[in-house]
Amino acid sequence: MASKVRRTYTYIDTDGKEQTIFINGVNSKDTDKKFQAFLTRQKETLILKSERVYPTLMQFIDEIYKPYFMRGLEETTKANYSRYIRLYIIPFLGKMALNAVTVAHIQSFYDWMAHASEYGKQQDLTCRTIDRVGGLTSRMFKVARELKLIEDTPFKRTLLRNNGRRSGHHKALPDTEVIRIKREIPLLEDERQRLYMGLLVYTGMRREEVLGLGWENIHLSDGYGEVRRVVTYPNNARTVVKEEPKTAASERTFIIPAPLKQLLLPFERKSGYVIHGESHECPVSCSTAQRTYNAAFKKLGILGKFNNHDWRATFGTQLKEQGLSSAIVADLLGHADTRMIETTYARARHEGIMKQRNAIEALNAFL
């Protein structure tokens, strides 16, 4: 029999919101009966929802996220994520049930990291670090949502504000300092320090790439080398040798200019690590690597002023100021695209601006 009546009913849903439903029936009594059956199902859903026990974020991390979603990560990435979890995520959000975390809690989490020194941490976190910690936490909630442990994620990007301090990393050294240091590198008495600084300064390689460089990947007669391997120290402890670079784009050719060639030539071998440990076939340990570059930085007068990665920023900046495109600089530094070049490396320096004097003068030549 076809429905003859269509009635509108108002009810409160399981989230406490007023909703409207339209029900068709033979008559008003039939629609009322259908509505009561609907309310019964809503009540049962509410009871099930209220009785459901949600895991805390800490339980979710220990029982699901770490074992299954961090298992295949690189050792250095896994170590960084574990540090973020231990230092920031667990202390602030760890004891909260997954379904209890709201966007307001996430904003409070961001603000807590931005003012970390007030809560016993060594220093306030930078915008970049907060983004990394927030990104990791966001992925956890996305996984929880996909597994249907929660209905929605509390990460709402348009609502969140990152009030972290501006990062002071990736500073390019002034040209005068670069020239001075390049002149003083050959004067370093320690072989390991001399080779390490030469590779760091003249190639723009990452620290792990310098430490993983083998003589079999250096072609002095042709003036180039190849990045094929990295050496890392997860948690500043054990040595991990990875027979491939950080990313596919990181596997690349680098130029060996004449000054660097002169530094390398006396120690040239067919194989083995350039920066070697107890033997040429062994990489240096974490402690030896740290002692090497700290001692070299101290002797060169830049310890505490600049770090290993600042030389990479310096190299990229100087290349950009020489007129190379961002795409070429990205290739030389081993980046997959130009985003890092435009936002992090190759920032304009006083020297870079002054090198454009002729172009500015040309604009005003008619005066």
Overall description:
It is a single chain. This protein has 367 residues and is mostly helical. It folds into 3 domains: 5-51; 57-146; 175-352, Orthogonal Bundle (hpI Integrase, Chain A). Helix content is 48%, strand content 9%. The chain has 15 helices and 7 strands. The protein has helices at residues 28-51, 57-69, 75-93, 103-114, 127-146, 175-184, 191-203, 207-212, 258-264, 286-299, 308-321, 326-333, 339-343, 350-354, 357-363; strands at residues 5-12, 18-25, 218-219, 224-227, 230-232, 240-242, 252-255. A 3-stranded antiparallel sheet has the order 3-4-7, with no helix packed on it. Strands 1-2 form a two-stranded antiparallel ribbon. Strands 5-6 form a two-stranded antiparallel sheet. α7 (191-203) runs antiparallel to α9 and α7 (191-203) runs parallel beside α11 (308-321). It is elongated and about 100 Å long. The model has no long low-confidence stretch (mean pLDDT 88).
Structural class: mainly alpha
Q: Kindly report the name of the CATH homologous superfamily of the largest domain.
A: Intergrase catalytic core
Q: What is the C-level CATH assignment of the largest domain?
A: Mainly Alpha
The coarse silhouette is elongated
User: What's the β-strand tally?
Assistant: 7
Report the CATH architecture of the largest domain: Orthogonal Bundle
- In CATH, the topology of the largest domain is named hpI Integrase, Chain A
Helix content bin? 40-55%
The helix/strand order is: EEHHHHHHHHEEEEEHHHHHHH
Strand content: 5-15%
- Average predicted local confidence, pLDDT: 88
Enumerate how many helices there are, as a single number.
15
Count the domains: 3
Straight-line distance between termini: 94 Å
Largest sheet: 3 strands, antiparallel
Report the uncertain regions. none
As a whole number of angstroms, the C-alpha radius of gyration is 30 Å
